[in-house]
Design a protein that fits this description.
214 residues; alpha/beta; five-stranded mixed beta sheet; two-stranded antiparallel sheet; 9 helices; 7 strands; 12% strand
Amino acid sequence: MRQRVSAVELAARERTLSGLRRAVRDCRGCDLWRNATQAVFGEGFARAQVMLVGEQPGDKEDLAGHPFVGPAGRVLDDALDAAGIDRKQVYVTNAVKHFKWKARGKRRIHDKPNAAELAACRPWLDGELRFVAPRVLVPLGATAAQALLGRNFKVTQRRGEPIEGTGLAEYVVATVHPSSILRAPDDEARRQGRLELAADLAVVGELLLRERDT
């Protein structure tokens, strides 16, 4: 039986991003690891100017061990491409590193992480922010945005708005999670959702261009 070791203890020992990625496999800070296939750590350019933070890995990510490789990841890839941002040049991760799910027949359905689970996993995200040090931080969806910016933050009211002075990155630009677009009621709503996500990410691209020009 493995000793219960928290993210605080494990993350504090590491001095590199790759060290954090190895250490997360042993995290037992909450119970989500029990039903997950594996921990899914962030991936991407280690000195990326843009870090995208979702809620948690989904079913496909849990099985593959990589973030944003399922249907929501494809929506994100399309939006990044439309915004002129190369995914290979960004860092993608999640606020929670294990898949939380409930059974529905033979399917594993996403279950929203609670405040205690988000807090237990926060040292991993803090470590990623410390080592990557992005210029622009992009929370995807309400869970990630509220974990980073406070429980009163409303993505619907402030999406696509560059926010300064957070202490997290030079700019924070929140937007919806790509999975919310997949849950839209019809094709037209999904088309509009994709356009709006791409527009929010275009704001990120404009901020990067502004920095190059100054």
